[in-house]
Amino acid sequence: MSPTRTAPDPRPVHPADRLTDAIHGIDTTALDCMQVNAAVLADAAHGPETHLALGARLRFAPRVPGPGRLPTVEPSPIEQIRSMQQPLGLALETGPEVTDGEELLRLLPEDGSHLYAVADAHRMPWLPYHNHQHMDHSVLLRSVAGGTRVEAVDAYDNETPYGRAEPVVCVLERAEAAALFDGSPILPVTARPAPPPALDVCRTLEENARDAAELLHDDTVTRYVAAFRDHPDQIEACTALLLETWLLNRSRRLHAAWTARHLPGSPLAASTAEQADAWDALAGQCYLAVRRVQRGRPAPPQISTKLTELLSADARLAAEAAHPGTGDNMPLQPAQVRETVVDTVADILRTHRETVAAADELSRLDGFASFQMVETVERLEDTYGVQFAPGDLEPAVLRRVDGLVDLVLRTTGVQAAHQ
Q1: FRET label pair with 355: which of 144, 250, 265, 317, CA 20 to 30 Å apart?
Q2: Centroid of chain to Cα 4
Q3: Nearest 5°: phi and psi at 15?
């Protein structure tokens, strides 16, 4: 049984709160503890699904933290903060570490915006790690109630050995908040919206392909897998590998979500989703391996083989996907394009997709007028990375689901032929 945990006064937040809305729109189970709260800030600043940009690049770049240490794909907090800025459209400025709780609270922005901070999960009572495990963890803090209280926002979502961590908004008395962080190193990071980068799906996939080509021609994967397989302390190795596969699983799920968003209906989207499922299964096997070695039993030998296979499959898929959705290799599927069109219109109208799918004329749906028609066009152009020809934007086309599907298929086919 997991130990009981308490959080300081969880607060229901008004639906108009942009951060809370952002949390509800994010699959928080596809992000790690550093990404998830930066993702909330990005979506609140720039709109839903902005955070998916963190899944655009498919990376595998293990590092060795120090002599005698096992390799890890987990970057340091500073490295991760730097790498998140540009894709999320955030200016993240790290300040010097502080160890005094009151000093930290004096850094909270006077305008009521949030401070992104990296602190010890061991000190955070809303987390199951509280009083159980030390680890770097992000949280959003802001001053409320005229400075007498502090709001903590943490969208982290994970099943842990100590219980489940779920997204939470807590309000603490100022003295209570200061005491939580007093005496422990905290990295304060001021966060401001910045212009998000222009989307270039093809360039991103080409960058992924270049990285993958290098990976397929060196021994990085072999050495990485061997480090865990051949380590003399298999409890340590399996415990570390559990974290590694957890991180890789989440990053692959996020990449699959990014691909589905920007290349809906493509074979690449289907393949990345299948890869993400395979990583999820491997993470489960690694959890089993930890439990077995803790009981003095051998780890399942197929884990090393499967890890090698999945890392190699990631690289092959990325290497072959530099130009998805174009030509004869990656054609869009009409049925999946139709699903995307229906989902897009349903989201714009805030209605059920079945209502949209059954409509002969979208103009007969409540709320579908000129503004909604324009938004539908713009969203579909963004989704598929195309520009519809002005002459094709006829009302008769834009008011029917089948018309919009034909428009997408025709435009992607024509523009692909000229690439």
Answers
A1: 265
A2: 29
A3: -55, -25
